[in-house]
Every structure is written in structure tokens, then in C-alpha cells.
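W.,

You were right to be curious about this one. When I first looked at the sequence I had no strong expectations either way, so I just let the prediction run and decided to look at it fresh. Below is the sequence, 71 residues in total, followed by the output.
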Amino acid sequence: LDEQRLVFIRHGADKDQTLLVKTGGGQFVVERITRISSSDVHLEVMQGGTRQEVMLPFAQIQEIQLQPKTA
């Protein structure tokens, strides 16, 4: 199997952090990492007020940041 399922649970200091993924097409606020394969990652993100799963090829990801949540 080249695909793994994982659980992304925030504990301790990471609990109050936000994961941001930047691509050439925009920036995503990640709620959950749902799947990872050898060539891409599937993320649950908030877009337009709804949760959606997006697939991002690793080649499109420019930057990943872990930032403090803003109220």
C-alpha cells in the first residue's frame, strides 16, 4: 500500500495552533490531514464557510506554517 491513513490530533502547545498550507493557487487553513500518498496529500479545509477535502500534489506546496490561532 502506498497510501496511509493517519489521525492528526493536536495536543498541548499545538492545540492552539493553525496549520497553513500555501500553494501557487492560494492558502489553505487545514482542519485535518485525511490521507497522504507518495505524490500528494488530502486535506480537510474550510472554504466558503464549509469543510471540503482538497488534494494537493506535493509539487504544488510552496510553504507550510504552524501559527498561533487568532480569535
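Here's what jumped out at me. The radius of gyration is 12 Å. And, maybe more interesting for your project: The chain has a mean pLDDT of 84.

Coffee later to discuss?

I.
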